[in-house]
Amino acid sequence: MITMTTAQAALKDLYLGALSNQLNTDTDPLLNVINHTSSNVYGRNVIKLVPYGMNAGISAGLETGTLPDAGGNQYLNFTTSLKNLYGTIEISDKAIRASNSDKGAFVNLLNAEMESLLYSSKFNLARMLFGDGTGQLFTISTVTPATKTLVVDNVYNIMEGMIVDFYYNGAIDKSMQGAKIVEIDRVGKKVVFDMAFSTTLTDANKANYKVYLQNSKDQELTGLGAIFGDSSTLYGLARADYSCLTPYTKAKKSTDTFNEEFVQTIIDDLEFCSGNPIDTILADTTARGKLVTLMSGYRRNTDFTNLKGGTMTMTYNGIPVLKNRFASGGEMLFLNSKDFEMHQLCDWEWLTNEDGSILKQKENYAIFQATLVKYADLICNKPSGQGKLTGIS
């Protein structure tokens, strides 16, 4: 017989390990190779002492000369708050009761919920990895209130069923809080919602509106978008005060030829300036296609490699090239994956109630909820060792 006790035991003993493993190793090829650690976590924050520059106590002198003065290492305190990552499932009381005499039906019910939770969690975790921490999903181009439709600049960050919040001039528009995306035209970049638009959401005011995943504004991981973004601060420090906080960037000009020498110059410049070997290239479809064309022009066979987690990808001069739906159009990122660490208070766990139970009744509903949680944030130890090439078309 299926009871709340057996249901909670299944969530904890049978599903948690599999969910945690897949979220950590099968979400994104880049995330797979990033080290996960509980070090440098203090309360609600990650405070990490990061060396920069080099030890100055070096010299080459006379045999009878004085020894070099100790220069010591230089350190910066990187500080960021732990981000609260949640994923919730719902099981109705009716479904549990209907499965009382059929364990197979209940297993199928839980499997369906777990697969949905896993898919949604992986999608949003990968999206955050490339985001800037603000959580903004898109920019509005056109507003059509009659059909509850927006035309947006990109649809890569969204999926049908996603629940979002609209903000007007920095404040949440409560009349559109919790709007659900019901349809996406990916060719026309049109997004249809399940509720009528606020009277202030018009073409005239569209620039004043921003859209975020529900309850997530400014609460997402400090992803690659934050490192390569134009914000004046990073990890609690002013970029203007420390050049090591600013990554290498290069814009391809119309007069530049996209060839092997051009790409290698970027890799060489990064390794020369930072001392970092580049071990990963991230690219969108356009940029990755340019590399394929470049190598075929030299009559080379495209080499492939198997990454951690089982993903197979092409390589460029031995460097894995990862294609990602969340990478910005016409851009390549050149990274040293060893410079990144995911600092976490704990690995994925079920949120428990005061009595230790996992399933909790939703107030005023015959529905039970369980929430998967992880407290973590991403830190890049050497932002200046990472590079970006833009303008690829």
How many DSSP E strands?
Answer: 25
CATH architecture of the largest domain: 2-Layer Sandwich
Mean pLDDT: 88
What is the subunit organization of this protein?
Answer: single chain
Briefly, what CATH class of the largest domain? Alpha Beta
- The global form is globular
- Residue runs with pLDDT of under 50 for 5 or more positions: none
CATH names the topology of the largest domain as Major capsid protein gp5 fold
Strand content: 25-35%
Separation, N- and C-terminal Cα atoms: 61 Å
Total number of domains: 3
- How large is the count of helical segments? 7
User: What is the gyration radius calculated from CA atoms?
Assistant: 24 Å
List keywords for this structure.
hypothetical protein PF0899 fold, 3 domains, alpha+beta, 393 residues, globular, single chain, Major capsid protein gp5 fold, 7-stranded antiparallel sheet, 7-stranded mixed sheet, 31% strand, 25 strands
Provide a short characterization of the protein structure.
With 393 residues, this protein is an alpha+beta fold. The protein has seven helices and 25 strands.
